[in-house]
Amino acid sequence: MHLRKSILTIAGVSTISLLAACNSTTSEDAQAPSAAEEVAATKADTTAETAEMTDATILQLNKVDTIPTKPDDSLMGFSDTKFMTGITGHFIMTKVRYGGGCKDHEFSAFWDGSWEKSQPAAMSIMIRHNANNDNCKAIKEQLLQINIGDVVVDNPNFFVTVTDGTTSSERVEVSLK
After folding, report:
1. 90 and 129: one domain?
2. Are 35 and 107 contained in the same domain?
3. 153 is in which domain, residue-wise?
4. How far apart are CA 125 and CA 169, in angstroms?
5. Which helix (H) or strand (E) holds 48?
6. Residue 5 above 70 pLDDT?
7. With contact defined as beta carbons under 8 Å apart, do 98 and 40 qualify?
8. The predicted structure's pLDDT at residue 177
9. CA 113 – CA 56 distance, rounded (Å)
10. Would you say 81 and 92 are in contact if contact means Cβ atoms under 8 Å apart?
11. By three-state DSSP, how is residue 167 classified?
């Protein structure tokens, strides 16, 4: 009986010690971020570094024989047009301004394959804008990221202008040399 009482006492003390150890938190544990917190912090850092890219509408440059005339809702202008290159490709980035605010707007980019005779050569990218019958009057701005990777393969040095037929961006140099 004495042996049984000793074993129960030891078992009880061990259980209490184990529970206390599981529930206790050292100051090191309290400060260490969880895996979810680490992922969130990494995403926040990445987002802060690439905020310009994440807000962009990504467009493929459609090479066509004839530029489509529709959709053709007007744009108010282009700004901050620039060439960017990175691990994911080569892009023309431009901000477009337009009226709206009540519906989603759609954009597409076209090039008819023609080159202006200049040194270096120049091309125009036509932006088509579909406002989806948005009659609201707020002035909106959208960053467009136009993939020009296929053009750069054949022509590593040229100028680009982005236009909607009425208004145009400043002329941007594309150079991989």
Report:
1. yes
2. no
3. 52-175
4. 10
5. helix 35-49
6. no
7. no
8. 74
9. 25
10. yes
11. coil
Q: Parallel, antiparallel, or unpaired for β 77-86 and 106-111? A: unpaired
Q: Which residues contact 128 (CB under 8 A, 6 or more apart)?
A: 68, 70, 71, 72, 107, 108, 109, 110, 164
Element (H, E) at 15: helix 2-23
Same domain, 29 and 63: no
The predicted model scores a pTM of 0.69
Residue with tokens 């009425």: 166
Q: Are residues 82 and 109 in the same domain?
A: yes
Backbone dihedral region of 130: left (phi > 0), alpha (psi from -120 to 50 degrees) or beta? beta
Same domain assignment for residues 30 and 101: no
How many independent structural domains does the chain possess? 2
Q: Are 169 and 163 in contact (CB under 8 A)?
A: yes
Both 72 and 159 in one domain: the answer is yes
Q: Which tokens belong to 149?
A: 């990777």
Residue 154, both tokens: 């054949």
pLDDT digits (tens, 9 = 90+) for 78-115: 999 999 998 889 999 999 999 999 999 999 999 999 99
Q: Which of 110, 121, 96, 97 is nearest to 171 (CA)?
A: 121
Amino acid at 12: G
Does residue 27 share a domain with residue 61? no
- The 10s digit of each residue's pLDDT in 133-151 is 999 999 999 999 999 999 9
The reply to whether 10 and 71 lie within a common domain is: no
